[in-house]
Amino acid sequence: MGITGIDDEKCINCGTCTTVCRLFRRSKENEDKIIFKVPQTPLDCNLCGQCIAVCPEDAILYEDIGEAETFK
User: Fold this and answer.
1) Closest Cα partner for 24 from 1, 43, 45, 10?
2) The predicted structure's pLDDT at residue 21
3) Burial class of residue 24 in the structure, from the number of CB atoms within 10 Å of its CB (0-12 exposed, 13-18 middle, 19+ buried)
4) What is the C-alpha separation between 35 and 16, in angstroms, rounded?
5) Closest CA to 12 of 34, 38, 27
6) What Cα–Cα distance (Å) separates residue 16 from each residue in 11, 20, 34, 61, 64?
């Protein structure tokens, strides 16, 4: 399944997710709100998890990505 969206109640609109993934961007209608573009093809999101890792508020919604691994 992968990334499913943004929890608007947690999101502080810092834009950090927009720096690591092109599927996150500022809304043209409302510059203060970050939106998530739903992937149209499997190549749009490779489930790298960078957006989840950089979000300071844990606002990225996701399903079925699996366990995180830590490397030395």
Assistant:
1) 45
2) 92
3) buried
4) 12
5) 34
6) 11, 7, 10, 15, 23
pLDDT by 10s per residue, the chain, length 72: 588 899 999 999 999 999 999 999 998 888 779 989 888 877 788 888 899 999 999 999 988 776 666 666
The four Cα atoms 24, 67, 46, 48 give a dihedral, to 10 degrees, of 60
For the record, the structure tokens of 12 come out as 């502080």
CA distances from 43 to 20, 23, 38, 48 (A): 16, 11, 12, 12
Token code pair at residue 40: 């149209």
Helical residues (DSSP H) of 1-72, grouped into ranges: 16-20, 50-54
Which one-letter amino acid corresponds to residue 65?
I
